[in-house]
Structures are given as structure tokens and as C-alpha cells.
Amino acid sequence: MDMLIGFPEGEALARALATALGLPLHIVGLHRFPDGESLVRLPGAPERAIILRSLDQPNDKLVELQFLAGALRERGTRELTLVAPYLAYMRQDIEFRPGEVVSQRIMGRWLGGLFDRIVAVEPHLHRTHDLGEVFPGTRAAALTAGPLLGNWARRQGADATWLVLGPDEEADHLVQATADAAGIPGLVGAKVRRGDHDVSVALPEGTDLSGRTVLIVDDVVSSGGTLIDAAKVARRHGASRLLAATTHAVFPMEKMEAFQAAGIEQVISADGIPHPTNAVSLCDLLVDCLKHL
Ligand code: R5P
């Protein structure tokens, strides 16, 4: 028998995915002991299992995944698929400073050794262009939520006065996919990051956003620093209205005040990470990929 296995924090998307795939759903039972260790309760022994878990705040989640995958293999599960809409530890893909661990490579060997198929959405890949390079020998797919964000913009009435703005060239593919789906132009800025909370975004000289509704898109909104600076620079270049859409919202809701102070009317996200800003579902995108991977 095949099974969709989800975790308590991601139950809504797991339920939708299981229904769409016609699979029974099992939500993993978890217990955290006072010393921080995890107890994982397993379903039976499916022949093939799809495990859904976003790996934001990843450390405990990774250990629990290891326990789950290891135990399923012990019980004879033949094919294991990981759907991690948010895939952790992808950005450290080189030794930026001497001595730093290249976590992407280690993570690739670790997860690649556990799973036969891995699916992620907007994984933070820079110098590595293909998710398959991260997980050699594993069937891997990197999806983009851009068309979903673009369709959301369309539903909001996006027209010729709208523009999609990405903070830096790393957001290029997301900008293009969003802009194409919305049928509006896209623009990419340049970002300088000086620290976790210290970034500045610049737009090409002479950019005129007067009268435009600017939809700022980014793969992740975490500290919110990038989004706030992108909003400020868009305003300086004349934008009359600001909205924001992200694939992965990992910011605390207290940040909304700062986003509003920067002139952002609304922030929306995809539902790979459950968050009050979730406005579009990844379900159909994931189902389509799982059917063909
Ligand atoms: C950076 O390379 C990413 O694409 C995002 O721009 C970044 O992770 C956003 O982080 P924050 O919200 O902390 O500025």
C-alpha cells in the first residue's frame, strides 16, 4: 500500500495532497522529551511512502525525518519520497570564509541517502543550478511557485500599470515566472548584504516606477530586511502602491507592522510553510510533479 505521511505542523497541506493523490494519510505522532529528544510514532509499513515536511527551523525536523525514514526502511518500505517545500541548508554551497562547512554538500549526501525522490519548491540554489547535483543518484525536482504568485496577482486585477520586482538576480527566475503568469513586466534589482539583518537593494539608474503597483517577490522572507529595503527603493523610484508575495514566509507576524510602515499594503505567501499570510496552495503543483517524477 502507498501512503502520504505528514507532520502535525503541516497537516493542512498534507491532507490536501493525500486527497488529491488518492492516498491514505498518516500524521506522524511526535513527542518531545524534557531533554529535547524526539519520540517518533510510525504508521504501519507502506510499500511506498511520500513524506511531506518543510524544513524551516530544520535541526529537530531533520533528526525526526532520519528516524522516520530509517524505521520505514527497516520495516520494508521500498520507495521513499521526500516533499520538502522548504528545503534547508541549500545556501551554504561554498566555503565563503576559510573553515566554513559546505552544508549543502553534506545535506545532499544525508538526505540523498535516505530518499529515492526529493521535491522542493524554490530551493536556495545559487552556484548549483540543478537540484540533482545536490542529491546525486536521487531523482530530484525543484519547482517554482512563480506561476501561482502570478495568478494571484491576476486575480487582484494586475494590469499594464503593475510590475513584478525581485530584490536581486537570485530572484530572477521567480520574477520571470510570476511576471509571465500575471502578464506584466518584471524587474530585478541588485542587493548588497552586510549581515543577517543589514541589506540594501538598488534599482538600475533612471528606473521610473511612477504610477505603478509594484509586486515585490522573493523566494523567502525571513528577517524581512530585504523586503523592507526593496519597498523603500521602489517608493524612492516613484511606485504608488506596494504588494509583496513570497514562496516561503518564515517571518514572525510582528514584522507586519514594519512592512506596513515601509508602505507595503499586503504580504502573501504559498502554503509550503503554514503561515497567516498563506494565500496560494502548492497542492496542485506538487501533485503534478509527483505524478511525473
Ligand atoms: C536571499 O538570497 C534570499 O533570496 C532572500 O532575499 C533572503 O533570504 C531574505 O531574507 P531576509 O528576509 O532576512 O532579508
How would you characterize the overall build of this protein?
With 293 residues, the chain is an alpha/beta fold. The protein folds into 2 domains: 2-143, Rossmann fold (3-Layer(aba) Sandwich); 146-280, Rossmann fold (3-Layer(aba) Sandwich). It has 9 helices and 16 strands. The protein has helices spanning 11-21, 58-74, 103-114, 131-134, 146-155, 172-182, 225-236, 255-261, 283-292; strands spanning 2-6, 25-27, 29-32, 38-41, 48-52, 79-84, 117-121, 139-143, 162-166, 186-188, 190-195, 198-202, 213-221, 241-249, 264-270, 278-280. The strands form 4 sheets. It has a 6-stranded parallel β-sheet with strand order 2-1-5-6-7-8, with helices on both faces. Strands 10-9-13-14-15-16 form a 6-stranded parallel β-sheet, sandwiched between helices. Helix 8 links the parallel strand 14 and strand 15. Helix 1 packs across helix 9 (283-292) and helix 5 packs parallel to helix 6 (172-182). The chain is globular, with a radius of gyration of 20 Å. The two termini are 19 Å apart. It binds ribose-5-phosphate. Ribose-5-phosphate binds at residues 167, 170-171, 199, 218-227.
Q: Helix count, per DSSP?
A: 9
In helices, the fraction of residues equals 25-40%
Point out poorly predicted stretches. none
CATH architectural name of the largest domain? 3-Layer(aba) Sandwich
What is the N-to-C succession of helices and strands?
Answer: EHEEEEHEHEHEHEHEEEEHEHEEH
Tell me what portion of residues adopts beta-strand conformation.
Answer: 25-35%
**Mean pLDDT reading:** 96
CATH class category name of the largest domain: Alpha Beta
| Global structural class | alpha/beta
List how many beta strands DSSP finds: 16
Rg, nearest Å: 20 Å
Number of domains: 2
Q: Describe the biggest sheet?
A: 6 strands, parallel
